[in-house]
Amino acid sequence: xxxxxxxxxxxxxxxxxxxxxxxxxxxxxxxxxxxxxxxxxxxxxxxxxxxxxxxxxxxxxxxxxxxxxxxxxxxxxxxxxxxxxxxxxxxxxxxxxxxxxxxxxx
Length: 106
Prior knowledge:
Blueprint: H1 11-15, H2 27-55, H3 59-69, H4 76-105
Helix pairs in contact: 2-3, 2-4
């Protein structure tokens, strides 16, 4: 049992704080864009999986079909979208670091 007094700023108080403005704001549009661009690629993968599930006679057979087909699922498009997203996130992070460095120097 915890017998220590609660801190002056409890967990509830911290949870009611709003996120900091500024840097986090560009994240939401980037996430929305990623979701929009990835949707057709994910849809294509799910369509392949749906066909397998409909053809399977049992859960075991479905499992085996999924495991054997996994390397060949149409994932190239999704991989390309994800690569672009990672590149953009990396570039954005570097820009923020450089911006911080310029503020500290200036």
